[in-house]
Structure formats: structure tokens, C-alpha cells
Predict the structure.
Amino acid sequence: NMAGLELLSDQGYRLDGRKPSELRKVQARMGVFAQGDGSAYIEQGNTKALAVVYGPHEVRGSRGKALHDRAVINCQFSMATFSTAERKRRPHGDRKSSEVSQHLKQTFEAAILTQLYPRSQIDIYVKILQSDGGNYSASVNAATLAVIDAGIPLRDYVCACSAGFVEDTPLADLCHAEEAGGGTVLSLALLPQGGQIALLQMDARLHQDHLDTLMEAAMTACRSLSTVLDRVVREHLQEVTTLTAE
Amino acid sequence: MLKSKTFVKKTRSGGVRKIVREHYLRDDIWCGSEVCQSCPQDSTVLQRNAYMESSLCSSPHYLIPDTNVVLHQIDILEDPLIRNVIILQTVLQEVRHRSAPVYKRIKDAIHNAEKHFYTFTNEHHRETYVEQEQGESAAELHDRTIRVAAQWYTEHLKKAQTAEDLKVILLTHDGKCKEKAEEIGLVSYNCEEYIKSLIANPELVDRLALKSEENNESDRGKILFPEHLPLSKIQAGIKSGRLLQGTFRANRDNYLEASVFVHRDGEEDVEVLIQGLRSLNRAVHQDVVAVELLPKSEWAAPSSVVLEDEGPKEDENEDEKENILKSVASEKMLKPTGRVVGIIKRNWRPYCGMLSKSHIKEATKHLFTPADRRIPRIRIETRQASALEGQRIIVAIDGWPKNSRYPNGHFVRNLGSAGDKGTETEVLLLEHDVPHQAFSQAVLGFLPKMPWSITEEDMKNREDLRHLHVCSVDPPGCTDIDDALHCKDLENGNLEVGVHIADVSHFIRPGNALDQESASRGTTVYLCERRIDMVPELLSSNLCSLRSNVERLAFSCIWEVNHNAEIVKTRFTKSVINSKASLTYAEAQMRIDDASMNDEITKSLRGLNRLAKILKKKRIENGALTLSSPEVRFHIDSETHDPIDMQTKELKDTNSMVEEFMLLANISVAQKIYEEFPEFALLRKHPAPPPSNYDILVKAAKSKSFELRTDSAKALADSLDAARAQGFPYFNTLLRILATRCMMQAVYFCSGMDSDFHHYGLASPIYTHFTSPIRRYADIIVHRLLAAAIGADSTYPDLMDKHKQAALSNNLNYRHKMAQYAQRASVAFHTQLFFKSRGILNEEGFILFVKKNAIVILIPKYGLEGRVFFENKDKNNPRLTFIEEIPALTVEHHTFHLFDKVKVTISLDSSNIQHQKIRMSLVEPVIPGVSVSPQSAQDCEPEAKKTKLDC
Ligand SMILES: [Zn+2]
């Protein structure tokens, strides 16, 4: 079929039936993993991510890495071999993965109150179990929950979401088919209360005039996500409190 | 609510890949009907009073067509009578998948507010989503999905409406589907019975596509053609190399012969000859077919016989005719020969032509003869045959059963009386695939709202050049002014020259309906008395047109040059200008020549004119070619619109002044966009012709003892200049006309897909089109690239995709070629009208080509070219001797050479109303039995028949 996919119908529906600004369904759980100091699992549509946090603990390996005024954040992002539809390449340790690791590190350095833990280290491991677009965003959202689960203080929930254009309409929270559709994909991590941007990343050139519209769409999506994450955290706390009370 | 949908998709390497896609179901998709009181919808599309007088259904009703009805009966659905139709998402998606042209047409209908077509997103509606059942095929699921949606509508409207008895009718072609629909209580008809039930509108019946092939096969006649192989077998055959895939090209002169052009990656292209009806096996010109090669012992030679399919005598033994093809041929002449075994893709389009009314008085089946001789006759059913006689009509093919001598089709539209100017123009537009429909509402929706003015927002990234003394110079009556110029002295003694081009890309944004339509049209088409715009008139003749004394947005290319016309500096900027004068070439020339005028505009023109002359001289020194072709203009009578005089175009200095700066701007822009986007620049190249192309030109020059050198453009230009014969002033022009014919076509291409950029004719290493964005789409792309290069606008994915750009270039090249053909056809038609009104004329002409059995004559006075044939299949032919090397043709005792002066009579032959032509007969030299006398031309009709011209 030469026609390709129609990403947005004239009636305003996307491939999967969402309207342009609607998010995919989010489901999340905290404390899913016995090891580690904190953990969380998130599903954003068909993208599924698991995050585990260790720390804060003493800096491992060379002591030279330690910082005297704040904690070192170590992030490792990986994709499960079974996570993508095409199973040809080894998803481990490739360039793309280390790039996402780097982005996660930057994001959480901006969000975690690192100065509370000088000369120590916090490890964040994120694995994508199933991938359907927005890997970085799902990783950030899972890691936020895991960091909270580990009891590490954050400036604010850090929420991430992607956005892209179909002609002049911005779409929020892109699935894989939409990411592959050819337009520029923007990923944004936001600290919603203060409105600070922890990370902004694009995979292709975009003119300045379009940037504001796209950022606005991603930021709105991040804000909606933060309400969802907030609810997950509250529910989890309630559960834990009930458990301890018994 | 959420569903996961799993797809299995074949990957390119042949493997299978599972795709899990999310599928959300919603509660907020409304029915779109005016009568509904339960859906909280803001606006409605389907009317309360959806009344159609039908003998099957007496109450108002909405129609739900299934996919096949949309695909095959789009002519019906487009009819203004058909309104209030529900197009299901399921149907729309499948149509999109199966046929791009039909998809575009149905979308246009949906966008047309008067049609009241409503798109229902049924697959995301919680109550109409259907899941595949175990063992259910994709086709069954598809049909069931449609029925479920129809059922939902039926019940929803029953609940929702107040008093009216509004019905929903499912239209399907499929008997089984109809049965199942009736089982669940739906009202369902097949399209034919429904259309026939519309008592008040019997004419709609003619537009029905005939039933599918299978339905027709059983009822009559012996099998005439071999079965077509199914696609799976074809694919296997091609993979194994047993079958070849190619494009079927019917022979214009012989209906029993065709060739299939096979392109194979990495191997040489082959042309496979196909002869005889059974081997042609129902393939139609331009279809993609699978062919099987015959053993070498059965290979044949292309016949030189002219065979016209003469019509409805079905019982006639075609084999006899086919025997004519099998002439004895030398081994050397034999070509790979094959037969068509299957159709990979039909490329049928609606065809123009005329009805050959059946001789049986009450008959409703008639044969239709297409104007394009490569298309077979088509059998159609109509009750208005008498009314359609003598009319040009459009017919679409529906199918070609194996027991039918001709394909079956249906009447689409009446264009009007044959020979009528409006009708013939319509025909030539359709036959050259020139999109010329009025712009759809969807397209017009992207036009700026009037009254339009320049806003502060528009001024971002834009220079204010309103103070400059800019003017435009164009042919008289030009309303789409693409370009304007200025020239002024700088303090450092140099000059500033600016070329300002309409900023069309400001108005046409990438990817929207307006952009897509312009990209598809590719170019504005200029016919003798009509212009078919590439962009809507509001842009072409108003907002983008750089008229005088209004503020217009422009894209400016500004140079600093010294007095030797050497460029010191080049810059590009988006701008706003206010042209001070729109001049014609003649007006501009007058100002330059009138020493008493010394205003800013005139001074500017003089500066430009002086620089242009230097530029032109330099260009010609570099080897640019100046060739001429007789361009014919008609003076059209303002009352009757008939051509009253023909004139070959006269060029003024100011013509070439404007041209020089346009060339300079195009080259400067080409350099800039290539520098910035080496992979994605849209450029234009003109390949050097292969040396053998020049043979005829060299021979022609030799006939007057001149030596032409063709090893480079420069050498050619110089030796052409030197070839001036004493006492024969037209000789040099003739040589240049001939040289034009030796040239290759210039084409657009994407820099990332090609390595040879050279423009031979302009002797420039790089070139593009920047200066006419109102009438050429290539220029719009170039504007976007240049704007991105200077940071004035953004890029978008398709612009940075070399494959997409290559595909776009192909379409633009195709459209330009077809536009050129359409233009020629228009000139030919007006030439015919002119000669029709003049009767027979005697004129002087020159021999442009000498052929085996004919001479080609150019009449300089009219720029008219025609053939005098010396052979006739059913007459005694004169003695002919052809010597190719010279070339020379001896007819009886007279020998014709290139460029010989002859006298001919010119008249119009309208014996075949679909193929009227200008006929030329030889008057001088006098050859007994061959030539005619000028006075008696009218009387000796049979004699003249052998000397006719195809215009
Ligand atoms: Zn309703």
C-alpha cells in the first residue's frame, strides 16, 4: 500500500482513535520490585517501562567520581530484547540507549534535590519491556515514581511527554506509528509546579515559529500526566499506610 | 474504553511481523443528523428533509454505500442529485487503500457542503466497533462492520427522531451481504436497483457502472480470450523469471499490435512485441501487465500496416486480419514477442470520444469510439443514444469479460457538440490529463480571508523595500505577474539590482489541501484562449501578482554588481514591495528609447537594459544556445472568439532584458540552495544530446556547404552563427529550428539523487526555477528551500526527503510535458479553426525533413508544420527513391532536399469529426500525377487525399 497511514483523519481522530491532545491510557504501580530502594512500573498505551532505584549510597568504583556538594546520579536505560516489533538488532548498549541514559541523567539531576546527599550516589535503572513510542517519556515517568518510592526528595514530580505535528495540528503523546510518520518529534520533561523544563529534545530541525506551539502541546500533556502520577502516588501511600496500620 | 488490535504485517524481506496497535473506543462520536435529539452535537450534516422520489422507498432516507459502491459508482455518488450519504470510516479507509483517484473524489464530495455527506468514525465508536471472529476473513469482517454501523444508524435514528419516518438504506453490490443485511432487519438494495427506482431522474441510470465481470460472463457468447492469471501466480512467475512485468503501450496506428515496455533493475530494458487480439488479451493502453515470451521461432517483426478497428461487425473473422500482420520479415527485424497472461494493475481513466450509434433502432447497447486511437472501442448501455450523437462524451470502462470483443463501460458525462470550441478545449484538457476542475472547497478553505492586508506578523523576517522604484515588464494583458525588477546606483559607484518574485510560499503552506492541489497540478497551463491556473485566482491574479501601486509580499534576490555586470555580492531576503509600474515589453522599450524621459523608473530600466546586454553577451560567449522555434500567437476576435489572424511572436530587447535577470536569479538561487542543502536541492538540468541527434542538422548545413561543429554547445553556437547563406535569409532560422529538435528535454531533479547537474542550453553548471512560483510548483519548493536556507521559514519532513522530492520531480516533469502537449493541441485546434474560416490557401513553405515516403513542410507565415505523403495504400503510388545519407527523396523525376522551397495548398479535412486535420497538397514543384493545381484544389478531392497532413 503506497498510501501510508493517515495519521489524522478529517474528523480529527488519530490512528488509534484519540483526539490530537489526548494522552494514551496510563497505568502505574509503585513498589513492584523487592530488591532496590524504590521501584515502579508504568504502562503508557503499549509502551511499558520498569524503573528501579538504588541509593543514595556511597560512590562505587573510583572515589574520584564523588562530588563534595551533591549526589552523583547514575542512569542506565535499556530495552528488553523482546520489546520491539523488529527483533533484528541487539537493543543493549547501542548508541541510542546510551543517549537516552544521558538524557535521563540530565533530567533527574534537575529534579532530585541532590545537594541533600553530598559525596553519595543514586542509581536509576530503567528497562523498556515493550516499546510503542515515547520510550524516553515513559522512562522518566517510571523513574519519577521509583525515586518517590525510594523516598528521595524531588523538587517536583518530573513528567515527560512527546509531541509532534501532523500538518499544522500538534499531537500529544505519540505512539510508534506516529513517531515514524516523518515529522519532528519533541520530547519534553517538565517540573509542572514551577513550570521549569528539565529537558527538551528534538530529533530533527524545527523552525522557531513552530516550537512554541509544540512545546505548549507537550507541556499541557505533561501537566495532565502529573495529575495521573499524583493519583498513583496517593493511592500507593494509602495502601502502604493501611498495611502498616494493620 | 480500550481495545488492542493485532495486525500481522509482511515486512519487505518477506518475513512476518506482528504489530500490536492500540484502539480506543469512544462515547463522543455523534450521528450528524439534523433530526437527532439525543446526540449533543454542535453542527449537523445530514438533513431532516432527505427526500428522494424512489419507487422502492417512499420516505426520506439516508444512504450508506459499501466500499465497492463507492469504488465503482463514484460517478453516481458525485451527481448533484445524490445527497445525504453516510460514508463510514471503514469504507473511506478501504477506498483510500484501493484507489487514490476515487479517494480524492469522495473526499471532495464530503467537503462539498451541498452534498451533505457525513463521515461516521464507526470503528472508534463504542457501539459500532466490531471484533474479528474466529475463522472470519478480512473481507467478511469488513462487510459485517458496515452492516453493524448501518444497523446502529437504523436504530439510533428510530429512537432519536420525533415524527418523521426517516430510513437508512444500505447500498451494496454483494448479494450475500444484502441477504445478511435483510436478515438483521436492514433496508438494503443493490446500487442498480436503487438508481433505477429514482423515478424522477431516469438519466442517472446511464451513469451506472455495469455489473462486475463475473455477472456478465455466463449469459452470452463464446470465450474469446484466455483467462487472466491470478496475482499470486503472476508474482511467482515474475520471481522465477518466467513472466515479465511491464507497461502496455498500444500502437496508435494498428489496433492489433502493442508493445510492453519491461524495465528490469540492473538489466537492459526490453520491449516485447504483442500481436493479435488473443495475445493482447484485453490489456488497455497504460495497464501494467504480465507477459510471457514466445519461443524464438514465433517471434515477429513490427508491422508497418495501418489498421483501424472498424467496428461492430462481431462475427467477422479477425484471424484474417491478423494474418496481414505476419509479413515476411528478415531475421534482423524480429523482435522479442510475447503474449499478455495477466493484468497487474489497470490504469483506466475516463475517456473522451464519441458514440457510434447502433444501427438497430431500439438498441440500448452502443459502441463508443475514444478520441485516443490507442484505446479500444467501449460498449455502453444508454437510452439517450440519439441525443448523444455528434456529441463529445466521456465514458469509463467497468470491465472486460473474456467473452466480449470490447470492454464494457458506462456513460459519465456529455461535454458538448464535437467541433465546438468549448467542447474541444475540454477534450484536449482531459486527454492530456490536465487537472482543470474548479478548485474544491477544501482547497479554497486555505486561502487568506479577504480583505487581506499585510500584518505586523507578516513583517517578521521581512525587509521593507516599499521605497524602491520597482517595476514589472510583461506581455500585454498579463494578470499573473510573478516578477518585478529594480536597479539603482550605489554610493561606491556600483549598481544594486533586485529581482523580486511573488512570495507564493507565504500563502501556500506545506501539506495542506491547497498545497497538495498545486503540487498535483504542477504548472499553470496556457491554451490559446484559456488559462488553467495552478493556484486559485485570488492568489494568481491578486494577492501574489506583483501589480503596481499595491503592497505585495515578495522574495527578493539582490545583487551588487559593477558596471561590467560582474557580481560583487548576492543576498536573498523576504520583502514587501510596492511596484511603481506594470509595463508591457513595448512600453518599457518606449521609455528606454525616449530620451526625454528621465524618471526613476526609466533610469532603472536603462540600467537594467545595459547590464542585460552585457550579461547576454557573456552567456553566449560561454556557449549558451539561442535557438528559435516559431511560436504562433492567435489574434482572437473579441466578439466571436474565433481566431482571425495568426502571427509568429516578435521579440523585443526588453523581452530578453527580463529574461537575462531571471536566468541570473535562478542560477544564484540554485547555488545557494545547493550549498545549504546538497542532498535536497530541487534543480533543473538539461542533458547534452547524444552526438547522433545532430546528424540531421549537420546534413542540413552541409547541403549549403556549411560545416557545423557539435562537440560542445559553444562550438555549435559559433558554427550556427557562421552559417548564413547568401540570398536565403531564412536559412539560418531553419537551422536553428532544426537544432531545437535535436535537443533533449530539460528536467527537474533532486540533487541528492543525481550527479550530473549541467544545463546544456544555458551553459550553466547549475540551474533551477525560482522566478515563476505563481505558475510553476517547482518554484514554490525552491522558495521554501531558499527561505529555510536564510532562516526566514522552517523546513518540514517532505522537504528534507530526497525520495519524496524525486517523486515530486517526476510528477512535475510529467505535468510540464503534458501541458506542452495540450498547448500544442490547442494551437493545432485553433489553426484548424483558422483554416476552416479561410477555406483553401496557397502558401510558400520550406522542407524541414525528408522522410522515406513524405516530406515535412514548415510554413513560416503561420509557424505551421505539415506532411505531404507520397504513398497511399489503395492507389497507384508514384515511383519513390529515398537516399538516407543526403537525405533526398526522388518522386518520379523530381528530387526533394532539405530546406527546398515548395508551394502547397492548405485546407481543413473534417471527414472524421473526431480527428479533423489540416491537409497539405503539393502545388510546386509540379509533378504530374502527384501535385495539384492551386485553383483546382477544391475539385480534386480524391487526388488530394494522398497528400495530407497530421497536425
Ligand atoms: Zn444522534
